[in-house]
Amino acid sequence: MKQFAALYRNLDQTTSTNRKLQALVDYFSGADPQDALWTIALFSHRRPRRTVTTTLLRQWAAESSGIPLWLFEASYDMVGDLAEAIALVTPPAEGPPTGKTIKDWIRLMQDLKDAEEEEKRMVILQAWRELDQDERFLFNKLITGGFRIGVSQKMVTKALSRVLNMEENAIAHRLMGNWTPDTTTYHDLFHSDSVLDDQSKPYPFYLAYALDFEPQELGPLEEWAAERKWDGIRGQYIQRGGHWFLWSRGEELVSDKFPELETLMEVLPPGTVLDGEIMPWKDETPMNFADLQKRIGRKNVSKKLMVEIPVIFKAYDLLEWKGQDVRERSYRERRNILDPLITALPSHFPIRLSPIVPANAWDELIAIRARAREEYCEGLMLKRWDSVYGTGRKKGDWWKWKIDPLTIDAVMIYAQRGHGRRASLFTDFTFAVLDGEQLVPFAKAYSGLTDAEFAEVNAFIRPNTLERFGPVAVVKPELVFEIAFEGIQASSRHKSGIALRFPRIKRWRKDKLRKEANTFQDLQQMLEMYG
C-alpha cells in the first residue's frame, strides 16, 4: 500500500502534466503486475463494490478514536470528506508496516461482502491500526467507493505506452471493455491476443473539443462536414460473431437497457461497429433526454416502457466494416460506406442516419446552428473530411459547436460545504426564483465561480446565515446569480415541478438586487418554449 500511497501523493501534489506522467511511468515500471492492474482499474473507474456501509464506518471511527459519535459527525461536517475525517481521528498505526499491497487490501475488502457485521468491524478496526494516515485515507476511499483522482485515461495510456513500448492506440483499445482485475491478468490484458478476440470489445471513443472561436478560422468550408449534435447517450453498436453489443461512452455495456436494438442484427452485416447516439425517438422526432433517463434507471425494461419511450440508434460513424478496422480511413470514406448502408434500411428498424448538414458558406451554418433547438439538438459538430477516427480528445479535426445555453437570474438561498480541498468552503448552492414575495427553489449548482469569488461569497455567507440544518446553511436571500443550463423539462420529483439539465453558475450578478431576479412565471414560460 505504501507504493500506491506514494503514487497518489505524487499525483495529488502537482498540477504539472509532465510530473504526473513521470510518476505513473515510475510506478508502473516497478510495481507488482497485479498491483499495477488494480491501479489501472481504479484510475479507469473500475472500483471494487462497497462492502461496508458508511453508517457503520462512522460508528467504528468514533469508537476507534474514543470520541462520541456526535463529535465525529461534527468533525466530518467540518472536514467534508468521510475518508479524510476517519484518517484524521483514528489513532496512529501500531507496530511495523505489514507489507500488504493494494491488491491485498482490495481482496480483504472484497472478502467482507458476505461477512457478519461483527467480523466486518474487527477487520476494519484492525486495518486502521495497521495503516499510517495516508494509507488509511486511501483505504477509506476505496471501501466507501469514493476513490477518484485527477488523472485522465489518456495520461495512464501514455504512461503504459512508454513502459510497455506499445502504441498508445493499442493500449487504449486493450483498456476498453468489461474487464476487471478479477477477470483478467496484467499479462493477458497487455500481452495476449485473447483480449482483442473478445467479440464484445469496443473501440476507444474519439472526442471533440468545444469550438471557442469563430468557425471561419477553421478555413474553407469545403474541408469540413457539419452534422447535428444530438442530445442522447453516445454509444457504440457492435455486431460480431452472431452477437450484438451496445456500449456507452462511459464503458458500460447497456445492451439490456435497449433490447429493441437487437433487431438490427437482421439488417447489418457481421463485423459492423457503428458510433452514434442512443436517442428516445417517436413519430420521427426526438423525445426529451429526461425520457431516456427513465429507461436508464430501470433494472428491467418492460414492453410498456419500450412502447412509451422507444429508442433508435442515430449512426454518425463507421469504425469496423466486414470485420476490418476502418478507423484509419478518412471520415469521407467512412461516410461513403455508412450513408447508403443506413438510408437503405426499412424505417421500422430502430436506426437512423445522422445526415450531413448541407451549407455553401459559414454564414449559412451559423444560421442553422441558431435554430438548433427547433431541430431538437444542441448545436452542430464539425469534422474535417480527411480526418481519421482517433483516440481520446485531440484538437484540430473534430469540434463541437454548441448553441448558447439558456440562462435565468436567481437568488441563492442555501449553501453547503464542498468536499476534499474545498471542505472548508461553502461551494454547493441552491437557487430560487421569485413567486410574489415567496422564493421557489429550482436548481443546485457548484461550479462557475473563480476561487476569489468563492472566497467573497463565503465572506457573505458566514455573517448572513439565518439557520442551519446539518451541513446546510440557510442564507439571507440577497445574492443574485445568472444560472446557465442546457435544457428544461417538467419533473414530478422536484418541488418546483421543473428540472434543469446541467445547471451551473454563469456569473455573479452584483449589479442586481433580489427584486430584480427572474420570476417563477419566467421559468414556466421557458418550460413552455423549450421543454
Describe the structure.
It is a single chain. This protein is of the alpha+beta class and 531 residues long. It folds into 3 domains: 2-144, DNA ligase, ATP-dependent, N-terminal domain (DNA ligase i, domain 1); 206-402, DNA ligase/mRNA capping enzyme (D-amino Acid Aminotransferase, Chain A, domain 1, 2-Layer Sandwich); 406-530, OB fold (Dihydrolipoamide Acetyltransferase, E2P) (Beta Barrel), CATH 2.40.50. It is built from 19 helices and 22 strands. Strands 4, 5, 6, 7, 8, 9 and 10 form a 7-stranded mixed sheet that branches. Strands 14, 15, 16, 17, 18, 19 and 22 form a 7-stranded antiparallel sheet that branches. A hairpin with a 2-residue loop joins strand 8 and strand 9. The two termini are 50 Å apart.
What does the secondary structure layout of this molecule look like, with pairings?
Layout: H1 2-12, H2 17-30, H3 33-43, H4 54-65, H5 69-79, H6 82-89, H7 102-111, H8 117-130, H9 133-144, H10 153-164, H11 168-175, H12 186-191, H13 194-197, E1 206-207, E2 209-210, E3 224-230, E4 233-240, E5 243-248, E6 272-282, E7 285-286, H14 289-296, H15 303-308, E8 311-321, E9 324-325, H16 331-343, E10 351-353, H17 362-370, E11 377-384, E12 392-393, E13 398-402, E14 406-417, E15 426-435, E16 438-445, H18 451-461, E17 465-469, E18 472-475, E19 480-485, E20 487-490, E21 498-501, E22 504-508, H19 520-530
Parallel strand pairs: 1-12, 2-13, 8-10
Antiparallel strand pairs: 3-11, 4-5, 4-6, 6-7, 6-8, 8-9, 11-13, 14-15, 14-18, 14-19, 15-16, 17-18, 19-22, 20-21
